[in-house]
Design goal:
This protein has a 4-stranded mixed β-sheet with strand order 1-2-4-3, with helices on both faces. Helices cover about 65% and strands about 5% of the residues. It has one domain (about 10-295). It is α+β, with helices and mostly antiparallel strands and about 300 residues long. The chain has helices at about 10-35, 40-65, 75-90, 125-130, 130-145, 150-175, 185-220, 225-240, 245, 275-295, and strands at about 70, 95-100, 105-115, 115-120. Strand 3 (about 105-115) and strand 4 (about 115-120) form a beta hairpin.
Length: about 300
């Protein structure tokens, strides 16, 4: 494992399968919309514009939602230095660097490809973790860039987001609208089914990609124990963050290294990350393997 990135066939297969299944969901999604907007040209233009906006501006949307801002080398010299060093080890172009002033310790990567990526951390994470732990977290996020799973997740979230919005919109319109419309109930049920299916598809990819990024961090840093320690600390601190602060960022929780979901939220039933205990167990197994290779 040491020094060898290799290809993750499991991740690649899941990304391809995700896009194929989501393509089928798109067809069903457009078919449902045609029940109300019976103009295919309007729908095609809308979908094309929305996907184009997601592709080119997804990083700005995520940064805005997290409250993160791009920082220069003068503003965060140590953070830039760490990322430059890790990028050299991972054979990656240096991404933009961002910091979010948040009491929620966390980190994420976003962007449309390796040449247009952003790695962001929160101020709380920088304050609470030791330097080797911060580097392990940064290596995890750079692994998402290396694996190219950021764009797939961005596109995958499109149907889920729009279907959820339309469910809420048509619910209120249906309550106060024309009750003689026999399609409203079928429309709502179909949207709910599409939302559930698309969410389950993205959930399967999201959970696996976190394992893949953990492995990538172990390869880049050669110290899996540092990431295990960081994950344990982050999860412990998040449990003590006030609910109102968690709610400010839980909308982009799927991008975080550790999910940030408020207590009592329904999102707790639909985890996008594998259990922290299993991630730490795997990292400790990697640490034991590395120790065996160097002994």
């Amino acid at each position: 494992m040491k020094g060898k990135w290799g290809s993750d066939l499991g991740l690649s297969a899941r990304m391809v399968l995700t896009m194929i299944l989501l393509g089928l969901v798109y067809v069903a999604f457009i078919g449902i919309i045609l029940l109300y907007v019976q103009n295919i040209a309007v729908i095609v233009v809308f979908v094309a514009l929305f996907l184009g906006a997601q592709y080119f501006f997804s990083d700005r949307v995520v940064l805005a939602a997290s409250g993160a801002h791009i920082v220069s080398e003068d503003e965060a010299p140590e953070l830039h230095s760490a990322i430059e060093r890790l990028c050299a080890m991972a054979d990656l172009p240096k991404p933009k660097v961002a910091i979010a002033n948040s009491p929620v310790p966390n980190a994420f990567a976003t962007g449309r490809n390796q040449n247009h990526a952003v790695v962001a951390v929160t101020s709380s994470l920088l304050q609470r973790l030791e330097e080797p732990e911060v580097e392990a977290v940064l290596a995890h996020e750079l692994s998402h860039v290396k694996n190219r799973d950021m764009l797939v997740m961005t596109i995958a979230s499109f149907v889920t987001t729009i279907a959820g919005f339309l469910m809420r919109f048509w619910f209120f319109m249906g309550v106060g609208g024309n009750r003689r419309d026999n399609n409203i109930f079928i429309f709502f049920i179909a949207l709910a089914a599409i939302w559930i299916v698309s969410f389950l598809i993205t959930r399967a990819l999201s959970r696996y990609r976190e394992y893949a990024a953990d492995r990538g961090s172990a390869i880049i840093t050669a110290h899996p124990a540092n990431l295990a320690s960081a994950l344990l600390k982050i999860s412990g601190y998040i449990e003590r963050v006030p609910t109102e602060d968690i709610r400010k960022v839980e909308g982009i929780s799927q991008f975080f290294i550790i999910p940030a979901i408020s207590r009592g939220s329904a999102l707790n039933l639909l985890s996008t990350h594998p259990p922290i205990e299993k991630r730490i167990e795997r990292l400790r197994q990697m640490e034991a393997q590395l120790a065996g290779q160097t002994s």
